[in-house]
Amino acid sequence: MLIDRSHRGWAIFVLMALALATSYYVIYAASAANGTEGGSFEGLVFGFTGTACIFFAAFLGVRKKRPTWRIGRAAWWLKGHLWLGALAFPLILFHAGFGWGGPLTSVLMGCFWLVFLTGLFGLFLQQVMPRLMSNQLPQETVYEQLDHVRGVLLDEAIAMVRSTGARRAVSRPQKQGAISGRVMESRPATEPTDEDASRRPLALFLDDEMRPYFRKNGARESRLCSPHARAALFADLRSRLDPSLHLIASDLEAICDQRAQLETQRKLHHWLHGWLLVHVPLSWLMVVLTVAHAIGALRFG
């Protein structure tokens, strides 16, 4: 979620609440003869308020699983999750007096810190990644369609190589590429013979370099994954081709560039969403530990 003007109301509310809580804690800490205690009246106020913020933030997960519930729009809950989750952090620190306490409390505080830090990391990614993806991925694809588009691009490359026998005509109309949107010469599909020496470097390059590169995990191992190596490989390919086939080599290089963009999008998507694999389980663990801490404090405090 991008932080924009729509967050202004939440930001003002949280900043005012934080200023009030900080002033209250300073007065409380200065007047406490035995130091701050979580079991004192002031400590309990901070504890209950911080816990309420935590449970509100945790409820976002339930709200997402029940989109038909008419209890506020999902965007409102997401903003509340962000801002009240941030407010919970200083409130809990005030409740604990910036200490860690016993074993259970120490585990709870460690989990709380991790949840807060992973949340900050995720918020940072959400501010940076969309701009990064728009700059680096001019032809961004729906994430669920990445594998399909990768296969279509390979099919387009195969069709180009198979059509090289008909590419020697002097004059040809131009048309738009089906997937890439690039203008390229129309190439009727004719199957060249094995004796067509001018086509052989293209066929070998397709089989030895491009097919492995277009496999699902091929971008991790192929030489084509490096921009510099890719440029060098295609320069070498052009040096072994008849000049009349240089344009098709450029078309193949453009398709490989699109394959690289698909892989970049996949990596950025994993970064953008992968932090949730840590943040969400830790958040629910923190909720369970918070309940255990509250029960223990009420029963044995």
List the helices and strands and how they pair.
Blueprint: H1 8-31, H2 41-65, H3 74-96, H4 103-136, H5 146-162, E1 174-176, E2 183-185, H6 200-213, H7 227-239, H8 246-274, H9 276-300
Antiparallel strand pairs: 1-2
Helix pairs in contact: 1-3, 2-3, 2-9, 3-4, 4-8, 4-9, 5-6, 5-8, 7-8
Description:
The protein is 68% helix and 2% strand. The protein is an all-alpha fold and 301 residues long. The chain has 2 domains: 159 residues, no CATH class; 131 residues, no CATH class. A two-stranded antiparallel ribbon has the order 1-2.
Low-confidence stretches: 166-195
Rg, nearest Å? 30 Å
The arrangement of helices and strands along the chain is: HHHHHEEHHHH
> How big a fraction of the residues is strand?
under 5%
Helix content: 55-70%
When the domains are counted, the total is: 2
Largest sheet: 2 strands, antiparallel
Strand order of the largest sheet: 1-2
Quickly give the structural class: mainly alpha
Mean pLDDT: 84
Shape, per Cα inertia axes: elongated
- Please provide the count of β strands: 2
Quaternary assembly? single chain
How far apart, in Å, are the first and last alpha carbons? 40 Å
Counting DSSP H or I runs of 4 or more residues, the number of helices is 9
